[in-house]
């Protein structure tokens, strides 16, 4: 099977959640301009939301959509908050996120806190992009408060995109950990799906793993498939990527062509792996032996593009 590169963002099957810009221009060149940022923050059209512990407030609209709860900056709780500039939309509206220790309370019962895994499946591409950017920055900010060179406490800069060390002058940038996720196919066009030891019964998905230091992403695909399932891989094709800030991954999606078929799982990370034809997968899902994939994950997109039509998916 060949999956065209153009399948990445505008797939006929399913767009990849969180992977598009949602019409937001990050305007990175303004991040060091404090005067510009101050004016943008104060503008009445600017919209702000709070991010805390990977969650934000969402609400359902009258017509059934789910949106981030946003407010003008003059309503925003600024005390001791970290302020992230996230970008602008085509109408010139600027968006900021505030990192707080808790989400703000509201007088109504319409708004509710949601984590990114849940929200990603519900929000518009614009709100999904704003939230994934804010959550990724928050995860990094919370875990990198001290200088990795000298140990001094660092301070936020560049509207949330740099931490500076006042002692040694080091600048620290947000961390992203590349991980590969791959649908392995054999010569009969069967797909290899595995289950991790800690997953619920019936949960099968694509294999995945982190890229190691000094390794290309193609090498990582070959190594991970060999380690986890004992399968040799030849050709490797990149398909698409997905930001996955849990806490800081970037999932790089591939189709990998196997040159062997005898499965030997590591038993450590992967408990079981099986080859599925399309008919096998449909029958196993119909019988309840295999659970539908999580719709928010790029794994569902990789599996569906092979399967050829939409699959039932489950929310996180
Ligand atoms: Zn330092």
TrEMBL record:
Gene Ontology molecular function terms on file? hydrolase activity; lyase activity
Where in the numbering of this chain does the Nudix hydrolase domain appear?
Answer: 174-298
Name the cofactor(s): Mg(2+)
The lineage's top-level taxon is Bacteria
InterPro entries in the record: NADH_PPase-like_N (IPR015375), NudC-like_C (IPR049734), NUDIX_hydrolase-like_dom_sf (IPR015797), NUDIX_hydrolase_CS (IPR020084), NUDIX_hydrolase_dom (IPR000086), Znr_NADH_PPase (IPR015376)
> Which Gene3D superfamilies has this protein been placed in?
3.90.79.20, Nucleoside Triphosphate Pyrophosphohydrolase (3.90.79.10)
* Keyword annotations from UniProtKB, A to Z: Hydrolase, Lyase, Magnesium, Metal-binding, NAD
Q: Does the keyword Metal-binding apply?
A: yes
Region Disordered: start-end pairs: 1-25
Keyword Lyase found: yes
Top EC group: hydrolase
E.C. number, please? 3.6.1.22
- Please name the Pfam families in this protein's record: NUDIX, NUDIX-like, Zn_ribbon_NUD
Which portions of the chain have biased composition (kind: Polar residues)? 1-11
Query: Which PANTHER family does the record cross-reference, listed alphabetically?
Result: NAD(P)H PYROPHOSPHATASE NUDT13, MITOCHONDRIAL, NUCLEOSIDE DIPHOSPHATE-LINKED MOIETY X MOTIF 13
| Protein name in UniProt | NAD(+) diphosphatase
Query: Gene name?
Result: nudC
